[in-house]
Amino acid sequence: MKLSRGEKLFDWINILVLTIVTLFFLVPFLSVVSTSLVSGREYALRGLFILYPHRPVLNSYDMLLGQGSIVINAYFVTTARVIVGTALGLIFTFPLAYVLSKRRLYARVPITMFIFFTMLFHGGLIPNFVLIEKLGLLDSFWSMILPNLINPWWLLIMRNFMLAIPEELEEAAIMDGASPLVVLVRVYLPLSMPVIATIGLWYAVMHWNYWFDAAIYINDPKKLPLQLILRGILEYGTGQYSDYSGLAEMTELTDPPPAESLKAAMIVITTLPILMIYPFIQRYFVKGIMLGSIKG
Amino acid sequence: MQQPLGEQIRVRVDQDAPVFREKRGFREAWRQIKRDRFLYALAALPLLYFVIFRYLPMVGLIIAFQDYDPFLGIGAIFSMDNFVGVKHFRNFFDSIFFWNIVRNTVVISFYKLLFGFPLPIILALLINEVRVTLFQRTVQTISYLPHFFSMVVAAGIVRAMLTPQGGLLNQAIVAFGGEAQAFLTDPALFRSILVTMDVWQQAGWNSIIFLAAMATINPEMYEAAAMDGANRFQRMWYVTLPSISFAIVIILIFRIGGMLDAGFEQILLLYSPSVYSVSDIIDTYVYRAGLIGRQYSFGAAVGLFKSVLALILMYMANKVAHYLGQEGLW
After folding, report:
1. How much is the pTM?
2. Does some domain include residue A154?
3. Which of A211, A275, A274, A269 has the alpha carbon at shortest distance from A75?
4. Residues 80-119 of A with CB under 8 A from B
5. CATH of the domain at A89
């Protein structure tokens, strides 16, 4: 089809507008990346540049990631949180989703309602805090894991996916003498891998990014996840962590980075793993939006 | 055509409830439960999670009607000794904060809706019109990116943009001969910052659902429209938009239903006493007065006020969705 002049003009204007929009989404992060590479010397000369440093240096990263630094420690905490949180999340979510996908199950709708209601009504901040306190989980790693074991929304998406698996498969397996456990592990688990991978990734990203629970439940700096160290540095600078050797060496650097570069570097450090698997994340998340739609 | 997308937007609870229900006696029920004992055993532990971490806090809301003392044991929560009725609610409604935080909550939500709702639709329309697939993909990929930043990172990026110590925006202002602004402490600008950040972080992501709806439009409709001499704008207006109108309506309804969530984490990470007057919302107030100020009962009361209101709003949103012939959340 030959495009008219008006059509072509439309296309060009559209591309122009979308390019500007894309820059709006991208530039803030890019400018943070470049800020993180500014040295103290360059800062003294130029102020914080607009788009790129003339002589990029890694001083800020060196300082934040020095031996025994609290940032390294927090990386381990967050990694542990992601691994344990995702594994337990799936271990709790998958069986329940499986059970709820059985149409024959007695009281299936009331049980589903019981879960669904928690999406509409919450106890709220204070009762949750009191609960964690009474359970003795304050300042515990588990205060970040246990309250987030199952996301009811994702649970129902997983269930919807499994509703689409034909019941005849189960009947056939039982005919062949399979026990209920074998049916679950040998028949449903492999068939559910796409939804398990997707929701596993959602749990992982959620655990990597979430911070508020740790903000109220955890005091010990050694137990804080990465997001909270970032928050501390953004709001109060690095001084508060100066007890931790990696950050104390700041004064010994010949060319200490400006505070803004340190903050920027910390943002990059916190986001890097997300960026590295971003193509992956993006595909699974977008696909996931459609997953819940499969009807039984 | 309406069916598939309706399916995508919400997860129905009873989507396959049996059409007819056989009357089940107690014996029959017991027989079925015994037959499926493996399934119930499997569900037990996950359901226990819901009991402990989702329902116990709801039970804990009774401290809103007490003078709860955190140093007393659990028994104190269930004794009548500390019962004070609706004292905390009355205090809240009478306090000078009440109208301010309710107003801030609604106003901030409203502005986020006003900009954050139509912009993803417009973005989706523009992306949908792109004919170069590579460019289209690139725009989409980049526009989703901020959605995956944690709130702390996103707030950090906003702070970095806005800081008077060489933030990008202030450098631009200075370069054009203006004066550097302390954006984050200026009550006149603070809400605009919240809204802009919200758009930056979510607009790309929120456009996905509309793009998905557009993908289901029959291409013949465009051909027919073109045949009748409709130009690109007219095709957008008369074909694309009406075809996704059901998605627009249902998402709008549920965003209104969730109006009391004005962005707790975002505000908590960006605000400061100098902008409390325009940014203190119900959630931040519960956090400060209830948790930090250790007025647990009062905080629980304010939280309960919000939860109940939010439940009513959602219920109404669902009713409206049904009324419009859409399948709601339940």
Report:
1. 0.91
2. yes
3. A269
4. 92-93, 95-96, 98-100, 102-106, 109, 111-116, 118
5. 1.10.3720.10
Of residues A279, A96, A19, A52, the one with CA closest to residue B39: A96
Q: What is the pLDDT of residues A74-87, one digit of tens each?
A: 999 999 999 999 99
CA nearest neighbour of B250 among B1, B10, B22: B10
Q: What is the mean pLDDT of residues A76-103?
A: 97
Contact A231 B200 (CB under 8 A): no
pLDDT digits (tens, 9 = 90+) for B270-303: 999 999 999 999 999 999 999 999 999 999 999 9
Q: What is the pLDDT of residue B178?
A: 86
The DSSP annotation for A75-111 comes to HHHHHHHHHHHHHHHHHHHHHHHHHHT-TT-TTHHHH
Please identify among residues 254-283 of chain A the ones whose CB lies closer than 8 Å to any CB of chain B. Answer: 259-260, 263-264, 266-267, 270-271, 274, 278-279, 281-282
Q: Percent of chain B, pLDDT > 70?
A: 93
Residues 6+ apart with CB under 8 A from A2: none
Q: Quick check: B10 pLDDT over 50?
A: no
Give contacts of B 75-94 with A, CB under 8 A. none
- What does pLDDT average to over chain A? 88
Q: Which residues contact A70 (CB under 8 A, 6 or more apart)?
A: A221, A222, A224, A229, A241, A244, A246, A247
Give the C-alpha separation, B287 to B292, whole Å: 6
ipTM, 2 dp: 0.92
Provide the pLDDT for residue A259: 86
Instruction: Tell me what the mean pLDDT of segment B188-200 comes to.
Output: 96
Can you tell me the distance from the alpha carbon of A288 to that of B205, in angstroms, rounded to the nearest whole number?
Answer: 13
Give residue A68's domain range.
62-296
Q: Do A121 and B50 touch (CB under 8 A)?
A: no
End-to-end CA distance of chain B: give it in Å, rounded.
20
Q: Is residue A14 part of a domain?
A: no
Q: Give me the half-sphere count of Cα atoms (radius 13 Å) on the Cβ side of residue B71.
A: 0
* Residue numbers in B near A230 (CB within 8 A): 152-153, 156
Residue A289 in tokens: 């939006």
Determine, yes or no, domain membership for A152: yes
Q: Give how far the C-alpha of residue A292 lies from the chain's centroid of Cα atoms, to the nearest Å.
A: 20
**Domains observed in chain B:** 2-22+95-323 (1.10.3720.10)
Residue A27 domain-assigned (yes or no): no
B311 token code pair: 């439940």
Residue B7's pLDDT is 42
pLDDT of residue A49: 57
Q: Which residue has the higher pLDDT, B76 or B119?
A: B119
What band does A67 get if pLDDT is binned at 50, 70 and 90? confident
C-alpha neighbours within 13 Å on the C-beta side of residue B28: 8
- Average pLDDT value for residue range A3-10: 84
Q: Give the per-residue SS3 of B267-288.
A: HHHHCCHHHHHHHCCHHHHHHH
Backbone angles phi, psi at A168, to 5 degrees: -60, -30
For residue A208, the chain B residues in CB contact (below 8 A) are 150
